[in-house]
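Good morning C.,

I know you're traveling, so I'll keep this short. The sequence:
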Amino acid sequence: MSYQIKIDTSPIYELLGSFMAYVTKKWVHDMDLGHEWIDKVDARLQQEVRTELATAQDCPFSDYDALYAWALLRPETDEISDYISYLDHGPDKDMFELLVPHIPFLTFEESLRIRKVYAPLLRLWDRDYFRALEGELRVLAEEDAAEKRMLLSKMEPEALVEYATAGLVVPHMEDLDTVVLFPVVHNRPINSYCFYTRTLLIQYPVDIPEESEEEPPTLLLRLTRAVNDPQRLRILRYVAQGPKSLEDMRHDLSRLEDTLMSDMMILRVAGLLRIHIGRYHKEKFSIRPDGAADLQVFLESYIGL
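The tokens, ready to paste straight into the viewer:
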């Protein structure tokens, strides 16, 4: 029997994702919002707030595993203020013991540090940036999630995960009971995921409506960017032979890791690759035929054929 799928549309995930993107600058180059968004947020925030938020830049990236786990395991509320208060004022022992079954390597001291550092910073982020956008983002997430929930009874779990994420392949695993999908807008078109004990949490992107029919759609721009480079086309030809690891590609294609990783990210966000993931083995990549078909569909639709 395969895993079950749950879809969680709490704005807490969007709060965490947008905060992580702004503070760490991770993936910003490949996000639709890009570096221009960072500049706009900087112009919006007071200098003292930017200084406070910057204190989290050097914290371990694994801190977010705990923050997302507390969101996943939160009491029955979607209110961001309740989540932050939950981080800030929850009983220390209870908050730690809540996570240990899901993140066994987390220590009590790390649990305390994460809560102490991030609760006030998330409160600032919510007050000065996120709160004004929450209503609009919640509507977009709920609309997309309604489609995915409708498909729960019509698609196999593996097929639904790949469809929602435009390429993540999560096979049946003996130690995986539940996959939780949550839609986000800020981090589009990035997918990210985190394995917990018997649970996999996956962020998938929600595309926002295009502002003008005269402009090329974002999905088409991602695809044309991905295929306009000979090296990336060679990667696609190579992975079409079957799932390949990054080590395989570095060896067989004679590519440096940094440039290969950059090209792989561009192909991933365009939806041209399947990413085969597992708890204990490294990602492997294969061609995603649906992505290649999308290029023709979006191009013909835009130019009016």
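Safe travels,
E.
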